[in-house]
Structures are given as structure tokens and as C-alpha cells.
Amino acid sequence: MAIIYKKCTKCGSKNSVKIDCGMPGYERSREAEAGKMNPDYSCNDCGHEWNRKQAMDEAYGKIKIIKASVGGYFGGYYDVTVDFDNLQTTWSFNEGETQKTSKRSIQVSTSQAFIEKLKMVNLLNWKANYTEVGVCDGTHWSVEIFTVERTIKKYGDNMFPLEWELFCKSIGRITNRKFH
């Protein structure tokens, strides 16, 4: 799932138009300097206006749970669940007979900071599949994103999104455990 920037953040309609203002005049430049966001889109159905940042905030705000796993036959598997509704993380590591598990409560501010990291790694705009053709062994990973509306799945075998390392560091930070 990629973020649909043209989807109205108020009514959900896709019947919108991109606002093309050209060069901003003095008034719009002053508003931008003052931190007021200028709209990029306008809804033809309800008249609401919004910008790309607001569309991104809306999409990431709908995430309820993230489940991520990574590992391989010789290195074991890491599994993590980040539950935004219950403000809790669950981390586990499995390798053969060895299994370790850890649960951690998190603060609202921690969950919000993690959402900001997810925006930075562009998680919702990752491709669905990153697979190196012809390689059967190695590192496998998956990320399931449970939102208000649906479940989004991303996965790969021996290939990763460009932002993978930052994603793994962010998972490690929120769980206070290793994830790679």
C-alpha cells in the first residue's frame, strides 16, 4: 500500500484535484514562514483542503499493530509486535531449542516517536515484495501492518528496502532488544 495523497483526509473521497499555485505570492510565503501549511489538494465532494504531510499523518495514524520478523536457518528468528492501542511491545528470539521472550510497556510519547521513525523509513510506501531470484537460503523477513481499515504485508528474501537498517534500529530501540 502506498499512501494515497489525493484521498481526502476528511471524507475519504478520491475525487480530488491537485492545487497548483505556481510561485507563491507574498502572503503565502509569509504563511509558510509562520508554519502555516499550504494545501496541495482539494476535495471536489466536501471542499476540504490538505497537504502531503497531513495525508501522511492520517495514514500513519491509522496503524494499530505492527508485526515484524527477520531471520534465517543458521541465525535464528526475531519476532516483534508493537501494539499501539495497548502501548506494549513483544519481542522473541527463536533458534533451535532456544527461545527468549520479552514484553515491554511503552509510553504514548515512545509510540509517537516510533511512528515518526516509520515515516522516516517510508514504511507504508515500501514495495510488497523484495525477493532475490534464484537464492533459496539466507535471510527472510516480513512486516505486517494492521490498520483501522486493513492489513498490509511486506516481505523479502535476501533483499531489503533501502531503509531496512534504520527500521531494524527503530525496532530495537522501541523493544530495547536486538532485531536484525
How is the biggest beta sheet arranged? 7 strands, mixed
Total number of domains: 2
Q: Order of helices and strands, N to C?
A: EHEEHEEEEHEEEH
Through-space gap between termini: 24 Å
- Total helices: the number is 4
Work out the strand percent.
25-35%
* Average pLDDT: 91
Helicity level? 10-25%
Low-confidence parts, pLDDT < 50 over ≥5 residues? none
The fold-level CATH name of the largest domain is Mago nashi protein
Count of extended strands: 10
Can you identify the CATH superfamily of the largest domain?
Mago nashi
From the coordinates shown, what is the CATH architecture of the largest domain? 2-Layer Sandwich
- Class by alpha and beta content: alpha+beta
Task: Tell me what you see in this structure.
There is one protein chain. The protein is an alpha+beta fold and 180 residues long. The protein folds into two domains: 16-59, no CATH class; 63-175, Mago nashi (Mago nashi protein), CATH 3.30.1560.10. It has helices at 26-33, 52-61, 108-120, 164-175; strands at 16-18, 41-43, 49-50, 63-72, 76-83, 88-95, 98-105, 129-131, 140-147, 151-157. The strands form two sheets. It has a seven-stranded mixed sheet with strand order 7-6-5-4-9-10-8. Strand 2 and strand 3 (49-50) form a beta hairpin. Helix 3 runs antiparallel to helix 4. The longest helix has 13 residues, at 108-120. The mean pLDDT is 91.
